[in-house]
Design goal:
It is a single chain. The chain is mainly alpha-helical and 145 residues long. It has a single domain, classed as Globin-like, CATH 1.10.490.10. It has six helices and no strands. It has helices spanning 15-28, 33-47, 60-75, 84-96, 103-119, 125-143. It starts with 14 loop residues before the first helix and ends with a helix.
Length: 145
């Protein structure tokens, strides 16, 4: 049985995981946010075409929103609780768009793939684990009632 690696186990991010996430984000910050978002959404729609109808035809603004939210999360990664209300509101908006609990795994997989592709040789198992844990925390807050 394969467990969903994006399930929040309540485990906090360690200091090393936080450092790894922040270091990788500094590398990603050198890339145009529209490109990162574009890569993410192309992967999401290629792997899960059923989600394409939930988004506008022009995805540039959506791509920038994604990277902006990721940046906010990374800036507060040492104190994720400070993002709780923002993430809860974001999750509520996503419910309005038709997003269901089961959709978060597809997004997580697409995000991890995007990070791996954009970081290239800087990507490793530690980063995959760290980013997966961060995504689990974020998605759990977004889906919390």
């Amino acid at each position: 049985m394969v467990l969903n690696k994006f399930i929040d186990t309540g485990q906090s991010l360690s200091e090393n995981e936080i450092k790894a996430i922040k270091k990788s984000w500094r590398i990603l910050a050198q890339i145009d946010p529209a490109i990162i978002g574009d890569v993410f959404y192309r992967k999401l729609f290629l792997s899960y075409p059923r989600y394409k109808h939930m988004f506008p035809l022009d995805m540039k603004a959506q791509s920038l929103k994604l990277v902006h939210m990721l940046n906010q999360i990374i800036m507060r990664v040492e104190n994720l609780e400070s993002m709780n209300q923002i993430l809860k509101e974001l999750g509520s908006r996503h419910i309005g768009y038709g997003v269901q609990m089961s959709d978060y795994e597809a997004v997580g997989k697409s995000l991890i793939w995007t990070l791996a592709q954009t970081l290239g040789s800087d990507w490793n198992e530690e980063l995959e684990s760290s980013w997966s844990l961060l995504y689990a925390h974020v998605s759990q807050k977004m889906t919390q009632n």
